[in-house]
Task: structure prediction
Amino acid sequence: MCGPHAAVRSIVGEMIGTHERPTVVDIEAGLEHLSRGTARHVDTLLIVVEPYFKSMETAVRIHELAREMGVPRIHAVANKLRGKEDDEQIALFLKSRGVDVFAFVPEDATVLKAERLGVGPLDVSSSSPAIDRIAELAGKMRTAGV
Amino acid sequence: MKIAVAGKGGSGKTTIAGTLARLLARQGERDVIAIDADSNPNLALTLGIPRAKASRLRPIERTVLNRVADSEGGIKLVLNRTVTDVLREYAIETPDGVKLLLMGKVEHAGAG
Result:
């Protein structure tokens, strides 16, 4: 129980639980790493999902796990969308499995350029289709007032 | 506002997490912290830290934790200093004012 994973989880849990200001945690990729310690202190889980079957299936499993753990708000953020058809398919699939899509973020030249350069999208531009959707997401999180 | 961001590797999870943290700060939230629990340097890059610096960042050490007995007779790990002290010692300032904390790499596969 006191291995390196446990230590990381304890630090993350303690920091989230004690810091009184907004906190964003980039958790490990595998859903087994959504530990109870982290889940207990988090009020919102955002599940980033791409418009293809395996990614959507993973999102559904993460959603189920998070719900079992009692995370109060769980939303999907659809990412790398290439058009209206992607938006509709992903919304339809996830809705049928009980997952709410909170934001639709398009594939975006600014994000691709940032990845190529090894910088952040906001270091390339302060506005782009993807950045503007993430800004709306930030606004929604602030309005939720948690 | 305590947000965790999950997703498969390659989904853009880190890009969303980092950009969201910066935009929260740009929209007026003070003292936003971002925690990289995924042991990759990409969150630092997304937050605007230059590549050369990102590779030299110091993760939080396990010495911030104490092992204490819990009420059920087990052992739990708790911080042995205040969050303010942890931030002072380990947080990295990023261009939009988001403070970044890096968790150390977990070397032993299957441990914990």
